[in-house]
């Protein structure tokens, strides 16, 4: 009885049960390796686990879908922004082309007018220059004896200088466009806007121009032809500064003359319509 009791104790011990289970496991592993006995079970378990795998992978798949959608949306926004910038650039170029076409048309009209009514000129030499803040004059060596008349336009190769103010028989005083007493009808070459330029002692000013007028720094100022003293289209000055009034009702532009008055040696006397010619 004691022997049987001892055997029962051995069979019931945890170690014995572990060894039996280990043996069974090894046997099953060997049998499965040789005969694929557990393959149907594995297939069944794999099919049963597919829904669980899908549920586990669903958040990751949704994250990837959202990430791709956001990335595509950001790319579309960037492409849309670039297209808008290109459209704006194209519109600006079209506007510039329209301005250039208008300017070319005005230049062609001016050239045609010059062809119809060519200028007649004669050369006069400067004998004295009188420039200070209140008075801007030069004296030339031609007068009534050479057919010069009051108000006659005077220029050089750089641009308009002024007009004859006082006459003598063999000399003339020419008031410069920078003199505070001088006014000159002009226009902006780029836009065709016409106004009056007044001398301010050093340059010329375009006073009380409406703020809606299109004037820019660098615009070329030419004679407008109004008053019939200066032929249209002669270069006068270039806009160098623009000031808007405190109440923003008008703007004043200052333009620098093209002609350098301090180094004048000779000038051209102009007869725009061939009505007067210098005496030979």
UniProtKB/TrEMBL annotation:
Q: Which family does it belong to?
A: Belongs to the MreC family.
- InterPro entries in the record, alphabetically? Cell/Rod_1, Cell/Rod_MreC_2, MreC, MreC_beta-barrel_core
Outline what the protein does.
Involved in formation and maintenance of cell shape.
Protein name from the UniProt record:
Cell shape-determining protein MreC
Q: Which NCBIfam families match?
A: mreC (TIGR00219)
- GO terms classed as biological process: regulation of cell shape
Question: Which residues are in the Rod shape-determining protein MreC beta-barrel core domain?
Answer: 129-271
Keywords assigned by UniProt, alphabetized: Cell shape, Coiled coil
The entry's cellular-component GO terms read: plasma membrane
The domain of life for this entry's organism is Bacteria
Instruction: Report the Pfam families cross-referenced here.
Output: MreC
Coiled coil segments of this chain: 66-93
Q: Give the taxonomic lineage as stored in the record.
A: Bacteria, Pseudomonadati, Pseudomonadota, Gammaproteobacteria, Lysobacterales
């Amino acid at each position: 009885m004691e022997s049987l009791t001892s055997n029962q104790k051995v069979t019931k011990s945890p170690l014995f049960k572990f060894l039996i289970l280990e043996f069974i496991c090894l046997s099953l592993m060997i049998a499965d390796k040789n005969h694929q006995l557990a393959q149907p079970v594995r297939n069944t378990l794999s099919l049963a686990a597919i829904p669980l795998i899908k549920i586990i992978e669903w958040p990751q798949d949704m994250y990837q879908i959202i990430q791709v959608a956001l990335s595509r949306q950001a790319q579309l926004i960037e492409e849309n922004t670039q297209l808008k910038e290109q459209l704006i650039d194209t519109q600006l170029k079209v506007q510039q082309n329209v301005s250039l076409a208008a300017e070319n048309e005005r230049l062609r009209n001016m050239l045609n007018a010059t062809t119809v009514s060519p200028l007649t000129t004669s050369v006069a030499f400067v004998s004295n220059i009188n420039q200070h803040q209140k008075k801007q004059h030069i004296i030339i060596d031609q007068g009534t004896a050479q057919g010069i008349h009051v108000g006659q336009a005077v220029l050089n190769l750089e641009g308009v200088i002024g007009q004859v103010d006082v006459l003598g028989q063999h000399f003339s005083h020419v008031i410069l466009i920078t003199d505070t007493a001088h006014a000159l009808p002009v226009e902006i070459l780029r836009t065709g806007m016409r106004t009056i330029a007044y001398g301010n002692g050093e340059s010329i000013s375009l006073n009380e121009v409406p703020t809606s007028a299109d004037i820019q720094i660098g615009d070329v100022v030419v004679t407008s032809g109004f008053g019939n003293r200066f032929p249209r289209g002669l270069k006068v000055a270039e806009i160098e500064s623009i000031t808007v009034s405190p109440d923003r009702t008008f703007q004043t532009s200052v333009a620098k003359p093209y002609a350098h008055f301090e180094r004048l040696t000779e000038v051209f006397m102009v007869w725009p319509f061939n009505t007067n010619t210098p005496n030979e």
